[in-house]
Amino acid sequence: MSSFTASNSRIRVVETVSSVDQTVFDTNDDMPHIVGTATLSSVTVDFAVMAVQTYATGVVIPNCVFFAPYNRYFSCLELDAMIVPRESSAVTDIADLPTDEDGNTVAIDFVIVQATGVRTLAGKDPRFNQALPTTVPPKTFSFQGSVLLESSGTANGASWLRRIVSVYPSGTKLKMKVQESIGVLTRNAPYNEVHGPVTTFPHYADTRSTYSFTFKVFYGKFRQ
Amino acid sequence: MAVVLSITPSRFIASAGKLDSQRRYIRKVASGADFKFVTGQNMDVSGGGLRYVDPDGNNNDDSAYNGSFSGAAGIGVKV
Fold first, then answer.
1. By the 8 A CB rule, do A144 and A113 touch?
2. Complex-level ipTM
3. Is A224 on the interface with B (CB under 8 A)?
4. Which of residues 19 through 48 in chain A touch B, CB cutoff 8 A?
5. In DSSP terms, which residues pair with A153 in a beta bridge?
6. Residues of A in contact with B40 (CB under 8 A)
7. Count of CB atoms within 10 A of residue B9's CB?
8. pLDDT of residue A138
9. Cβ(B16)–Cβ(B2) below 8 Å
């Protein structure tokens, strides 16, 4: 039978559906609720440009370069080019957590972020003249925890690039962690007898990406 | 005028409908959760790969990930 009870500092509402009692509301339970909101504008995320280098594979290419003074061909070492692997992580404080009437920081259990963002600089895949795929939707989206911003794969589909951002409470602050991981990406760099080794990453200098977000943050708790 | 408090045999309404027995208020449970609240960072990158920690706390890695991040399971709630 549906009921409402209020006793011993407890309020409880029970709804009876098809002879089954279902708790609708019970102050003895931990119920998620929002204790504060904040709007953070112009939150920027910046992923730096990649670097490239060549290296000898140890394979000798016979007769690969012609030297006129000697009127003959010479062998040379095969070169590969690689995007320099990199792991980067940066944590910044983007807001103070809410405080109570005494000025003490409220112990937040969770945050929900409603984000609107734009990629202000679309970094290119270093191999191709095209922007790195982004997973940021063009309209407002919500998330808890982390969001994948960019990724790319090798020819066989294996991941070599991931760029993510995480937003979470820690101590008295709302933190934003920006992470990038560049794994192994190599391509053969054929020797050019005029210019020497030619990079096969013609767009590596255009790989920087930047984002600008507006975050509406909902600070939540389960129990006061 | 808003109803401050209404109690009938089949329905309870308080505070102008902010509390209504015909709604389902979610609450934290130790087991049998309908869904979970994520409470912190739940992705990590390393070696060019990605680890995604799902709300149950399980690691989901792509083949390139070589890190050791451990994320926490979410907090379960029931409708």
1. yes
2. 0.87
3. no
4. 22-26, 29-32
5. A159
6. 145, 166, 168-169
7. 9
8. 83
9. yes
